[in-house]
Amino acid sequence: MNLDKYQIRIDEDFLFFRFVSDGNLGRINKVIQYDKMSNDVYNLGFGDENPLTGQVDDTVVTNNGDMTKILATVASSIYVFTQRNKNAWVYVTGSSQSRIRLYRMAINKYVNEISEDFVVYASLENGEWYPFESNINTKEFLIRRKI
């Protein structure tokens, strides 16, 4: 994906990625965090940086007018993270139905480009995982770099 993205700062463990959203409401610190769930599965957490803890707050809706650039930045972190962790599966879901829909729409829009480097699975209501298909109502995603 050749989209404009923010410059990210990466911690030494490649688990925390930080950047600054610069939009209509000013400059807002953002955090992308990868948490190990099991063997090679990592949860991708994303949101505003809590100023007290430095952790991800994925419940805030900032509407800073730069959603495409932010999503491109999050996607770029997946490239970096999976380059470093070649066998990792990245688990993605949203903290709300609207965010799940947003992520599904973004994957759907760029599925051809994403599929060049990654395999994407989606979970339906029954909890089973299937290869991602456009326009299917999914609630969670697993992404892995093609080896």
Question: Could you provide a short overview of the structure?
Answer:
This protein is α+β, with helices and mostly antiparallel strands. It has one domain (9-145). The protein has helices at 67-84, 97-109, 111-117; strands at 9-10, 16-23, 26-38, 41-49, 56-57, 89-93, 118-123, 129-131, 140-145.
What structural category do the secondary elements indicate? alpha+beta
Number of strands: 9
What's the Cα radius of gyration? Answer: 15 Å
Shape label: globular
Tell me the β content: 35-45%
Task: Report the total helices.
Answer: 3
The tally of structural domains comes to 1
- Give the overall average pLDDT: 91
| Approximate helicity band | 25-40%
The biggest beta sheet reads: 9 strands, mixed
Quaternary assembly:
single chain
* Stretches with pLDDT under 50, minimum 5 residues: none
Order of helices and strands: EEEEEHEHHEEE
Distance between the termini: 19 Å
Topology:
Blueprint: E1 9-10, E2 16-23, E3 26-38, E4 41-49, E5 56-57, H1 67-84, E6 89-93, H2 97-109, H3 111-117, E7 118-123, E8 129-131, E9 140-145
Task: Report what the structure shows.
By secondary structure, the chain is α+β, with helices and mostly antiparallel strands. It has one domain (9-145). It has 3 helices and 9 strands. The protein has helices spanning 67-84, 97-109, 111-117, and strands spanning 9-10, 16-23, 26-38, 41-49, 56-57, 89-93, 118-123, 129-131, 140-145. Strands 1, 2, 3, 4, 5, 6, 7, 8 and 9 form a 9-stranded mixed β-sheet that branches. A hairpin with a 5-residue loop joins β1 (9-10) and β2. The longest helix is centred in the middle third of the chain and has 18 residues, at 67-84. It is globular. The two termini are 19 Å apart. The model has no long low-confidence stretch (mean pLDDT 91).
